[in-house]
Design a protein that fits this description.
Layout lengths: L8 E8 L7 H4 L5 H8 L4 H22 L8 E3 L5 E3 L5 E7 L2 E7 L4 E7 L6 H8 L2 H8 L3 H22 L9 E3 L9 E4 L10 E5 L5 E7 L5 E5 L2 H8 L3
Parallel strand pairs: 1-11
Antiparallel strand pairs: 1-5, 2-3, 4-5, 6-10, 7-8, 9-10
Length: 241
């Protein structure tokens, strides 16, 4: 059974890199030579395996939606590293942090997802002043220390999700201003190069697991976001006993 993906839907999937839905020996043969080479460049075994698991599961997901084989998929990359499929018109993005990976998939809209594992930041205000807009940094400074860290990660993931969707990359962090305070609406407040924000983009806050913060950006205001965890369907489809 191929998963259905209507034109106005975004599907979100997550994978535990510590307890993946597929053993690594099943995923390794799915990777292309360049993916294997990228994995080999990681200095630590945990990072190498995390990359292999996240990319192998990405191939299985995309192949199932497209009713093709995982090995057939070929990727191209923008100068800032945003991946896309060369032979299929399916939009996707992925992010991984610590022991978790997130995937976002939609038929036609620009899309970006970002994920961060919550952790202490010693110089959070200095980092906010360096990478964020003056208004964002000033808002973060009004919070207590734990609130500052959460607001920093909220702002970071929201900016990154948008910049990954557009393909601009991290160099554009100050070009997009987002809400970051607790209980504030999740939204893009300002783009340096555009005034038509509300008509073009949807922004979502994600909490896929305890101690993780994420964000999803979609280049449409008319989408339905659905969460999927049906890895058993993929297992029975690709790895029949």
């Amino acid at each position: 059974m191929t998963l259905s993906l209507p034109l106005n839907e975004v599907h979100l999937w997550q994978v535990s890199l510590l307890h993946p839905p597929f053993p690594l020996p099943q995923l390794m043969p799915l990777l292309s030579p360049d993916e294997q080479a990228r994995a080999a460049r990681y200095a630590f075994e945990s990072d190498r395996q995390g990359f292999q698991i996240s990319r192998g599961c990405l191939r299985l997901l995309l192949a199932h939606y497209l009713a093709t084989s995982p090995q057939r998929l070929q990727f191209s990359y923008t100068p800032n590293g945003k991946p896309s499929l060369t032979d299929f018109s399916l939009s996707f993005n992925l992010s991984h942090s610590h022991q978790l990976a997130l995937y976002s998939i939609t038929p036609r809209y620009p899309i970006g997802v970002d994920l961060e594992h919550l952790r202490p930041i010693a110089n959070v205000l200095q980092l906010a002043q360096r990478f964020f807009t003056p208004r964002e940094a000033a808002q973060i400074a009004t919070l207590n220390s734990s609130g500052q860290e959460i607001a920093f990660f909220q702002a970071w993931t929201r900016k990154e999700a948008y910049l990954k969707a557009t393909g601009e990359g991290i160099k554009g962090l100050k070009q997009v201003e987002v809400s970051c305070l607790p209980d504030a609406p999740v939204e893009i407040l300002r783009l340096a190069h555009s005034s038509g924000i509300s008509a073009e983009w949807s922004l979502y806050h994600l909490t896929p697991a305890p101690d993780y913060i994420g964000a999803l950006a979609v280049g449409s205001r008319d989408v339905v976001v659905r969460y999927w965890q049906d890895w058993e369907t993929l297992r029975s489809h690709f790895f029949r006993r």
